[in-house]
Write a structure and sequence with these properties.
By secondary structure, the chain is α+β, with helices and mostly antiparallel strands. It is built from two helices and five strands; from the N terminus they run βββββαα. Helices cover 25% and strands 26% of the residues. α1 packs antiparallel against α2.
Length: 100
C-alpha cells in the first residue's frame, strides 16, 4: 500500500482514526458488518482491510497478545502451520509498538 493516496477514516464511531487508501470501499455501505469490525475492500485487487476489536484476555501478557490472537485465529481456521510465517512479523510489530 506504499504510495497509495490515503484518507483518514473514522472507525468504531470515531473512537479510532486510521489512514486508509482511497481505493478501499467501506463494506458497511454494501452489507451489514458486525459492531466489533470495520471492513474495507478493494475489489479490483481482491484485497481487504479488517479492523477488529478483541476481548481483553487477562491471562495473556500485553507483549504476547498479538501472537495469542493470531494463534487462536489459526486454530479456528485449521491453519496452525501458517503461524511460523507470522511469528517473526509479530515480534517486529510488537518491538515497534504497533499492536495488532
Amino acid at each position: 500500500m506504499s504510495g497509495d493516496f490515503c484518507t483518514q477514516r473514522n472507525l468504531f464511531g470515531g473512537a479510532i482514526v486510521s489512514n486508509v487508501p482511497l481505493r478501499f470501499e467501506d463494506v458497511s455501505n454494501i452489507r451489514q458488518v458486525p459492531d466489533h469490525q470495520e471492513v474495507f475492500v478493494d475489489p479490483t485487487r481482491d484485497e481487504s482491510l479488517i479492523f477488529e476489536l478483541l476481548d481483553l484476555k487477562t491471562d495473556v501478557a500485553d507483549h504476547g497478545s498479538a501472537t495469542w490472537f493470531l494463534q487462536d485465529l489459526a486454530n479456528e481456521q485449521d491453519a496452525e502451520g501458517t503461524m511460523k510465517k507470522f511469528a517473526k512479523a509479530v515480534k517486529l510489530l510488537v518491538r515497534g509498538r504497533v499492536w495488532l
